[in-house]
Amino acid sequence: MEVALALIVGLLVACSIYLMLSRNVLRFIFGLVLLSNSANLTIFTAGRLTRAEPPLIPTGMPAPPELVANALPQALILTAIVIGFGLFAFSLSLVFRTYRELGTLNSDAMRLAEPRTDGKDVVDDSKTQRGEAS
Amino acid sequence: MSWLLVAPIMLPISFAILVFLVREKGGWGRWLSVVGCVLHLAVSVALLVEVWNQGVIASQMGGWPAPFGITLVADLFSAVMVLIAAITGLAVSVYALADIDRRRELLGYHALFQCLLAGVCGAFLTGDLFNLYVWFEVMVIASFGLLVLGGDKEQLDGGVKYVTLNLISTVLFLAAIGMLYGVTGTLNMADLHTAVGEVENQGVVVMIAVLFMIAFGIKSAVFPLFFWLPAAYHTPPVAVSAVFAGLLTKVGVYALIRVFTLIFTQDVDYTHSILLVVAAFTMLTGVLGAAAQTEFRKILSFHIISQIGYMVLGLALYTPLALIGAVFYLVHHIVVKANLFLVSGVARRMTGTESLAGSGGLYAASPLLAVLFFIPAFSLAGFPPLSGFWAKYLLVKASLDIGDYVIAAIALITGILTVFSMTKIWAAVFWKPHPETNGSGVVRLPRQEWLSLVLPIGFLASLTLIIGFFPEPFYVFAERAAGQLLDPSAYVAAVAGAD
């Protein structure tokens, strides 16, 4: 089971890096979502997997009588998912707003804050980039 | 004394809620924000005094004993970072009285600012790695909001790069935490100090250490991970970029120093050699990047990077003197850097532009402002007897002591190139006449606006002078703080015995 999850994590990371290498900012954000999910799976796998052993303590006992699943990694992942959700909601709205203001999703064409000084203009191929994304 | 540990975090959060509620009631929000920062400063001083007298103090949140609960812990290094964050916060909140327009106030500038302070102080005080991640997120989301608040085109452009690259850093941090938990079974930093040494497969530990290094490296903008910083820091209002410049990257440096003195000290030869090379390139690329810039705040942004190099150098050398230098440098640098950004804001208001070519004549218009620029600028470059001289002296001495002449030479060359940039600003913005209408293109600011902009600058500049002229107590302090970092037994004992 650990091996399968490790492979999935590897696959997710590979996909997310492929997406993040794109100049289209929206694809980049999707890659980031995948990456954060693979980080969550990493925590889950690293916390050791135990099947069908819920961490329940019987009444009157200070500790569970036998080996149970570790609840801590799941608590960590839950926190990370909530935080990640907030961050990605923010970044998606940021990308949307940026697209409306700047008219492009191509990160190469976003040179307002750091204008080029060599006089060359960036070819804005954001239209084709958007076509791919949709 | 657990309230002393909680107060530097709870106060800003409470004031964030308060100022958000009154944001539509005229000037209430901004004055409440100043009051919050004054109280924050007061509890930070109390915390520092307590730690100085009692040694390391720790407290378990919710009464769960370590290593199961979340620990808040303050050693001298944490306490002084909290204090310096509070000082910067107060200066910027006064500056914001005049700098932040009504539109941004209504959007919630002051609330986000207080949240940012809470996140920064939480990161300094926590004793738990996952909790550190949570405070990083609090800080990061507040900084995202502040950076794009108002939604100018330039801000959005810089914001996209800042947000995306910082998110990668937090994901890497999270993955590193997961793997570290996998091999040690604990996330309490004091507990990790011993647990990491007991791991059989030390290769995995080193791999995780490097993952932490990359995550914190992006946060602290070291070479070659700094590209988000010069893309974003010059776009928001000055009251935002000053607090970013002073505090945000330094939280990354703090985390690097904490993790690589407390947890990952097993294979110092390997990890700290990487840090040394990184430090050298960070210093050089930062200062060379600055030399190519022609705008006030862009030059300053690149100088943040080169200065981060010095702090990482202190950690990388990993001798007592070098760590003293790193602590000293952090304290001196936050004050100086925030101050320079504040000066750049006043200069833009008076000359109407940030570009060096378009401005000028400030020395004739306001000699006071020129002096107030001169002090932090040449302290940054390391002129004696200003604070930067002592900080640089300690680090160069530390590198010479272990015979690393190359890194000492790089540190000195970086200092000289910093002088070049600072004289460039001095000559263009202050000395040469303003290009328009023969030197009368400089606007005089209304009295009230002038006061709230210049008071914080004067306050920070006087701190720089005090550190410069009386370095002895600061050195003694840094020595004790570095001693606690190098020998964490007091830290570990305090966390284990905390209630």
Can you describe what's shown?
The complex is a heterodimer of chains A (134) and B (499). Chain A is elongated, with a radius of gyration of 22 Å. Chain A has helices at 2-20, 25-46, 71-102, 126-133. Chain A is mainly α and 134 residues long. The two termini of chain A are 35 Å apart. Helices cover 60% and strands 0% of the residues of chain A. Chain A has a domain at 1-50 and 70-106: Helix Hairpins (Orthogonal Bundle), CATH 1.10.287. In chain A, helix 1 (2-20) runs antiparallel to helix 2 and helix 2 (25-46) runs antiparallel to helix 3. With 499 residues, chain B is an all-alpha fold. Chain B has one domain (2-496). In chain B, 78% of the residues lie in helices and 2% in strands. Chain B contains 21 helices and two strands. The radius of gyration of chain B is 22 Å and the shape is globular. The mean pLDDT of chain B is 90. The A-B interface holds A 20, 25, 28-29, 32, 35-36, 38-40, 42-48, 72-73, 76, 79-80, 83, 86-87, 90-91, 94-95, 97-98, 101-102, 107, 110-114 and B 130, 133-134, 137, 140-141, 144-145, 148, 151, 153-154, 156-161, 163-164, 167-168, 170-172, 174-175, 177-179, 181-183, 230-232, 234-235.
